[in-house]
């Protein structure tokens, strides 16, 4: 049985890097907004990050699905780098929920208005 090889294009790789970076930037922005007591704006930044992360994850899912179908790909350092960016962004997203809850409690203790 001959395995079909899939091509991972530079567009996919750099798309994964760029989208992951944009999502992570939105999550960092959300945390900064929370520190300023701007909870509603922070929630919007999280939504923006989530939408961007969903786009990045779709690229990864495409390749995981193809591999699950028995197709193979040659993976280079750039693809590993892209996956690393995505993984780090997912970790930031997971930690962000905890950090925003803690920041909300800090803001309440400081008597800061939550807008």
Mind sketching the topology for me?
Blueprint: E1 5-6, H1 10-35, H2 39-68, E2 72-73, H3 77-110
Parallel strand pairs: 1-2
Question: What features would you highlight for this structure?
Answer:
sugar transport; about 80% helix; mainly alpha; PTS_IIA_lac/cel; two-stranded parallel sheet; PTS lactose/cellobiose transporter subunit IIA; about 120 residues; PTS_IIA_lac/cel_sf
Folded structure, characterized:
- The protein is mostly helical.
- Helix content is 78%, strand content 3%.
- A two-stranded parallel ribbon has the order 1-2.
- Helix 2 runs antiparallel to helix 3.
- The longest helix is centred in the last third of the chain and has 34 residues.
- The chain is elongated, with a radius of gyration of 18 Å.
- It starts with a strand and ends in a 5-residue tail after the last helix.
- The model has no long low-confidence stretch (mean pLDDT 92).
- It comes from Exiguobacterium alkaliphilum.
- This is PTS lactose/cellobiose transporter subunit IIA.
- Pfam families: PTS_IIA.
- InterPro entries: PTS_IIA_lac/cel, PTS_IIA_lac/cel_sf.
- Keywords: Phosphotransferase system, Sugar transport, Transferase, Transport.
Overall strand count: 2
Following the backbone from N to C, one meets helices and strands in this order, namely: EHHEH
Span from first to last CA? Answer: 61 Å
Number of helical elements: 3
Which range best describes the helical content: under 10%, 10-25%, 25-40%, 40-55%, 55-70% or over 70%? over 70%
Indicate the low-confidence ranges by residue numbers.
none
- Strand-residue proportion: under 5%
Q: What spatial form do the alpha-carbon principal axes imply? A: elongated
Based on CA atoms alone, the radius of gyration comes out at 18 Å
Mean pLDDT: 92
Sheet with the most strands? 2 strands, parallel
Structural class by helix and strand composition: mainly alpha
What topology, given as strand order, has the largest sheet? 1-2
Protein name: PTS lactose/cellobiose transporter subunit IIA
Keywords: Phosphotransferase system, Sugar transport, Transferase, Transport
Pfam families: PTS_IIA
Organism: Exiguobacterium alkaliphilum
